[in-house]
Design brief:
alpha+beta; 2 helices; elongated
């Protein structure tokens, strides 16, 4: 199967670089799978899991928004934040999830920034899913 270069980059630096057969992402319009030779495309990403497949290996990356640029031989993901499973502190992610759940409950009652609390919870859940916890 044909491969393409994949790069996942954040403001803090590169998270992943390598050859892949397919990438699956969550865009603002839904899930999208890209293979080598795809037409050029730019798509905004949401909080979600990026799956980078090569042979039978799948590398997961927790991404918190950003953009994906596709060219026939390369896909670049420019993410606000991105973490590999090995980089995720599960205890910290669980604590963040619990804080976000409490903040979301308060937001419902006190009419504070509900959207911010909801996004914090989504980010925490996404990180835990990638970490396998």
């Amino acid at each position: 199967m044909k491969t393409m270069q994949a790069n996942v980059v954040t403001p803090d630096g590169s998270v992943f670089e390598g050859q892949i057969e397919m990438v699956t992402v969550k865009t603002t319009e839904g899930s999208l799978g890209i293979m080598a030779g795809h037409l050029p495309l730019v798509a905004p990403l949401t909080i979600g899991i990026v799956r980078l497949k090569n042979d039978s290996n799948i590398q997961l990356v927790a991404v918190s928004g950003g953009f994906m640029e596709v060219r026939p031989d390369e896909v670049s993901i420019l993410a606000e934040s991105a973490e590999l499973p090995s980089d995720i502190d599960v205890a910290r992610a669980r604590a963040a999830k619990e804080r976000a759940e409490r903040r979301l409950e308060r937001a419902k009652k006190e009419h504070i920034d509900f959207k911010r609390a909801e996004l914090a919870l989504k980010r925490a859940i996404n990180r835990l899913e990638v970490a396998g916890s």
